[in-house]
Design a protein that fits this description.
With 414 residues, the chain is α+β, with helices and mostly antiparallel strands. Helices cover 35% and strands 26% of the residues. The longest helix has 21 residues.
């Protein structure tokens, strides 16, 4: 009988009054079990009022506030987890309609995989997930009714609003029921309105995976390949990027726009649980292969691990620094973006170049990690790291290259 069961998810959206929320505030903790049951009963009453009798359905509700990015994740795993929890709660294999609520058990959330992340600064739009279960025929009928009804008539009752206000300690300005399809449509509209249509294509392909390779290329030159839960993102070094650039803007302006999009797309995918792996240097060009499966295979062989926070590019010399007498680090910065690259020059006793290296931050934390790592390397060699921050790109245009500060005319403070 269980094999014939199906499910359809939805959410109660909770829009908070940002005037009464501190910036960077941590969202409220999940409700204890008894309060989660109180909220679940109120939500069940709301849904029955809107959709009609729900006697033929099981219903699972969660007593926590979730950011949208926690629900809209590759393959929508929340649905499978809640369905599995419900089925395992049955005393035997027969389906029995009932209300199941999930809340805190002491200081712990009983299912860590679906515990609210409570990221500081999340919101102001949150969601309380729920899931209906039943026979496939009944769920198909209910799902259609939810799509027709919730978006137009989905206002929560005053009782539900009072419970949320009192138990979570928040000030909601809007409480509305919606389907996950409604959330996806809202996200698509927001992204396309802000010129992130390509990001929506990548998110949609991951939310509803089909096993195919999906390609997105931007006017700024950014290139992404996504299959299921993983995205390969081309990340050529400055020299390789500039060699392919054919626009009319200056290199620093154009590279700034490329970096802006790269960071925005990467942050958006990571927030939704997609693994982003940088494909470095000249290998980045493989993402442009006409055959998407071939491009995917070649990218997979050269991509950095998904947890890599920096990309290192050896321009000259080697990474054997024995005999080094001087190490200088130049921070390359772009307006509104901060540091986008670092050039490290390692010199020997006679001033000869032992190595010239470019390092690129792939994650925000790398802006701290890169200088700290070179300071540690210098200390290990018994020399002091010289740091320059010219506040711009230190580079030449022909041939394009990032430069140490002294070669671009900027002095290095000691």
């Amino acid at each position: 009988m269980q094999e014939q069961l199906s499910a359809t998810p939805g959410v109660l959206t909770v829009e908070l009054d940002i005037r009464h929320s501190a910036e960077g505030e941590t969202p409220p903790a999940p409700l204890p079990r008894n309060h989660a049951q109180e909220l679940g009963r109120a939500m069940a009453g709301d849904l029955a009022r809107m959709l009609g009798s729900l006697d033929a359905y099981g219903l699972v509700t969660l007593g926590g506030l979730y950011d949208m990015t926690e629900l809209l994740r590759p393959g929508l795993p929340m649905v499978d987890i809640l369905m599995d929890l419900y089925l395992r709660s049955l005393p035997d294999t027969r389906f029995q309609p009932s209300l199941m609520t999930i809340g805190m058990d002491g200081d712990d959330f009983p299912v860590p995989a679906i515990a609210p992340a409570r990221q500081p600064g999340a919101g102001p739009l949150f969601a309380i997930p729920f899931l209906f279960l039943g026979t496939r025929e009944n769920i198909d009928r209910l799902s259609g009714e939810m799509e027709k009804t919730l978006l137009e008539k989905g206002k929560a009752s005053m009782t539900t609003g009072e419970i949320i206000t009192r138990r979570f300690g928040v000030r909601p300005v809007n409480l509305s029921y919606a389907t996950l399809n409604d959330l996806c449509a809202l996200l698509r509209i927001q992204l396309e309105h802000n010129d992130f249509g390509g990001l929506w294509k990548l998110l949609e392909a991951s939310l509803f995976p089909d096993g195919n390779v999906h390609r997105v290329e931007l006017a700024e030159g950014n290139h992404f390949l996504l299959r299921d839960t993983t995205c390969f993102a081309a990340f050529p070094g400055f020299q390789d990027w500039a060699a392919a650039y054919q626009g009319e803007s200056t290199l620093d302006e154009a590279w700034g726009e490329w970096h802006r999009k790269q960071r925005q797309y990467t942050a958006g995918m990571l927030a939704h649980g997609i693994e982003v792996r940088a494909v470095p240097g000249r290998a980045a060009a493989t993402l442009g292969r006409s055959d998407p499966d071939q491009a995917w295979g070649e990218a997979a062989m050269s991509a950095l691990p998904g947890d890599a926070s920096t990309l290192r590019e050896l321009i000259a010399g080697s990474e054997a620094f024995g005999g080094a007498r001087r190490i200088s680090l130049t921070e390359h910065r772009l307006p509104a973006l901060g540091p986008v690259a670092y050039t490290i020059l390692v010199e020997g006793p006679r001033g000869e170049t032992l190595a010239q290296i470019n390092e690129y931050p792939l994650r925000p934390e790398a802006v701290r990690e890169i200088p700290a790592a070179w300071a540690e390397t210098s200390q290990g060699l018994g020399i002091e790291l010289e740091v320059s921050q010219p506040g711009r790109l230190a580079h030449r245009s022909r041939p394009a290259a990032l430069l140490p500060a002294e070669e671009s005319g900027d002095s290095i403070p000691h």
